[in-house]
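Input C-alpha cells:
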C-alpha cells in the first residue's frame, strides 16, 4: 500500500510540475553555473488576481479544460492556461459549503469532484450538483477524494472512508470494520 501511494505521489509530481512550469504560474528557467536548469521566478496568484481565497487546500490539473482547479476555504477557482484568466465559483453555485478541502477529476466522465466541510459536489455540463445521497456517507466532512479507474469514488471523511460505486452504491469503512483510524 505504501509503495502504491509513493508511486502515485511521484507520478502526480511528474505530471503537475511541467504544467506549473509551462504556463500556469509563469516561471522562468535559467542556466546555473553548471549549465543545469533552475527555477528563478514564480508568479504568485492571490484573491486580488481572481483566486477565491488565499488559502488553497488542493490543486488539480484539468487537461480537458486546459487549466488548473484550486480548492480554497472560500470556494473553487479555475485558472485557464489558454487565456491566463481566473473564474471563481462562489456561494451562488450549488456547492454544499464554500470551505472546500479536496478537488479531483473523474477522467472517465470529465466531471470535477469536490469535498467540502458539509459534503461532496460535482461539476459537469457547466453546472455544480451537490450529491443528493449524503446520508450514506460515513461523515459529511470530506477531507479528500480520489477516483479509481473503475469509476468508483472514494471519500476520506472525519468518520472513516466511504466509497460510491455507480452499480453497487455505497460502502463505508470505519474503525469498527477494520480501518486503522477514522
Amino acid at each position: 500500500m505504501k509503495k502504491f501511494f509513493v508511486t502515485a505521489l511521484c507520478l502526480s509530481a511528474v505530471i503537475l510540475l511541467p504544467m506549473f512550469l509551462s504556463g500556469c504560474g509563469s516561471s522562468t528557467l535559467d542556466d546555473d553555473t553548471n549549465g543545469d536548469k533552475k527555477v528563478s521566478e514564480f508568479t504568485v496568484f492571490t484573491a486580488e488576481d481572481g483566486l477565491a481565497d488565499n488559502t488553497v487546500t488542493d490543486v488539480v490539473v484539468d487537461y480537458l479544460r486546459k487549466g488548473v482547479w484550486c480548492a480554497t476555504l472560500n470556494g473553487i477557482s479555475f485558472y485557464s492556461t489558454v487565456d491566463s484568466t481566473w473564474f471563481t465559483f462562489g456561494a451562488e453555485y450549488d456547492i454544499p459549503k464554500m470551505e472546500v478541502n479536496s478537488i479531483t477529476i473523474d477522467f472517465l466522465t470529465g466531471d470535477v469532484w469536490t469535498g467540502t466541510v458539509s459534503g461532496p459536489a460535482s461539476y459537469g455540463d457547466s453546472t455544480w450538483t451537490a450529491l443528493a445521497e449524503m446520508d450514506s456517507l460515513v461523515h459529511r466532512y470530506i477531507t479528500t477524494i480520489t477516483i479509481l479507474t473503475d469509476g468508483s469514488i472514494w471519500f476520506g471523511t472525519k468518520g472513516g472512508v466511504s466509497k460510491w460505486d455507480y452499480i453497487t452504491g455505497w460502502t463505508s469503512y470505519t474503525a469498527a470494520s477494520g480501518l486503522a483510524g477514522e
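The first helix runs from residue 2 to 24. The two ends are 18 Å apart (CA to CA).
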